[in-house]
Specification:
With 117 residues, this protein is α+β, with helices and mostly antiparallel strands. It has two helices and six strands; from the N terminus they run H-E-E-E-H-E-E-E. A hairpin with a 5-residue loop joins strand 1 and strand 2.
Amino acid sequence: MISGAHMVIYSTDAESDRAFFRDVLAFPHVDAGQGWLIFALPPSEIAVHPDAQGGRHEVYFLCDDLPTTINELARHGVECTPAINAGWGLLTHFTLPGGGKIGLYQPRHPMAAGLVR
């Protein structure tokens, strides 16, 4: 029934954030026209958490080895917050050039990614 998902990150500096996804994260992409890049993502999953008001959404990237990924991002000048053990995973955040925050974690929970072909 559902063939995929499309996520939108709103930015005060979309051009710089697109360059970050293209050049630092090296996500494959297509140009939808006039520099509007659409990025392919690695296998992904979505979770639904309770929230009294609803309507809030967050983006987290996953990695297999958080310390190694933090070091790789640092080589590109990206600063991450100190990693914490959140129980369900090792967690950090970094800021996009446009000011948006992205979570990054090494999961310790069962993964749903890969269940869908």
